[in-house]
Amino acid sequence: MKLLKDKLFVKSLAYDAIGMVTVAIPLIGPFLDLVWAPYAAKKMGDMYPGKKGKVASVLVFLEEILPGTDIIPTFTLMYFYTFVWKKNRHSQPRTIEVESY
Using one digit for the tens of pLDDT, what is the confidence trace for 36-88? Predict the structure, then answer.
């Protein structure tokens, strides 16, 4: 699957998984979010520079810091918004290839 070879997509999945793991750790999980939220916001800004990266950084910070919202895959949604869903007239369209089994 070509999509899994894209490093940015794999990073997005990994960061979302880390953010979701804190929900599964009783008592300590909410405190881990206090550390993870600013780190995730910094990483989002690094992965997506410019205005959309700044907006996404704020969104991922809020998503990680607010209770009950850790299950939202913000990094992966941002990847799909940037490379799959958003129509940009200046860039070439990306094709997602799916292999059948």
Answer: 999 999 999 999 989 999 999 999 999 999 888 888 999 999 999 888 887 65
Q: How far is the C-alpha of 51 from the C-alpha of 45, rounded, in Å?
A: 9
End-to-end CA distance of the chain: 11
CA distances from 41 to 4, 5, 74, 78, 98 (A): 23, 24, 10, 12, 31
Angstrom distance (rounded) from CA 49 to CA 71: 24
Q: What is the pLDDT of residues 32-49, one digit of tens each?
A: 889 999 999 999 999 998
Quote the distance between the C-alpha of residue 93 and its chain's center.
21
CB 30 within 8 A of CB 67: yes
